Amino acid sequence: MEVPQYFHMNGGTSETSYTSNSSMQKRGIEVTKPIIQEAILEIINSISSGKDIPKSISIAEMGCSSGPTALLVVSYIIDTIYNNNKSLHESDGALSGCPHPEILVLLNDLSSNDFNVIFKSLQGFYDQLKKAYTNLGDADDDQKQHGCFVAGIPGSFYGRLFPSGSLHFVHSSYSLHWLSPKRNKGNVYMAESSPPSVLEAYLKQFERDFCSFLKCRYEEIVKGGRMVLTFCGRADDTSPSRGMHCFIMNLIQGKIEEEKLDSFDMPQYVPSPSVVKSVILNEGKNIVNFMRSISESLVVSHFGEEIIEELYKRCREIIAPRLSREGSRKTKHLSIVISMTRK
Ligand code: SAH
Could you tell me which InterPro entries the record lists for this protein (predicted)? Predict the structure, then answer.
């Protein structure tokens, strides 16, 4: 099975859209800001010669989706580049009109992603840049350049997407647990009743996919370029079928004819740190909306619209008492962050 054309995070800006349900990811990305800043400064150092700063820097955001997180890391990068440039020129006593590297931002996701939500927000983003960095000029003045150019690159990040040696920095967050759905027929999504062979097949697929991702990016990133990846993770190697990501499938089981269930493909694997490491070396209602924003397109396309309201209603009925039992204890999410340099 090829990457499904119908698969996408819920688009638009409604209550069950990814846009309205990505605050957990936003918090996770905020924590990685210092790692991203350090990587960007290293890139600038490695490609600057003497006092000459590079003319342009190309960055790719892989699996950008359609929510506010699509441009969050981009804003960190721009902030880092402009502030670094400002401090360099302040020390020279020549701040105004100082050149900074222009930034090409390549936003990647599957072609079924709602890129238009991002594209419609771009003018506001550019205006904010001009306002935030006063030396870039008046936000109403179209002649003044913000020096940032954003483009969409549809396609699977498990294949080649960019020319060789063309990227300085690659970022991806909360996307690489989505597998390329090209597995043996008959594998169901992992649920508590899944046999070890299914769990093993998911692990192997994750390893193969992540390896393809690394190989492709190796070709595309310049020497000295950097990559920061943030995964949804599991704390350890025990039971990959436990946790929120398997909850929907446990619920669907018993409600749907077995044949339909057996042919369903939920291409997701949440790795543990040791799984990520071995490949490199050789989060009520809000929760349900969150789960719905990421899983609805797959569930609807396979099981039909009819079960959808009932399914997510049952999710709410089951999750709400659990949450109140747990009181104010917060649901914990584990993220795995890795920062790499291309040699
Ligand atoms: N990076 C954002 C979005 C994460 S949601 C954030 O941190 O909030 C995961 C995104 O990965 C979805 O938009 C999904 O369409 C995308 N995705 C999944 N598999 C992909 C693939 N093979 N190639 C490109 N994008 C993919």
Answer: MeTrfase_7, SAM-dependent_MTases_sf
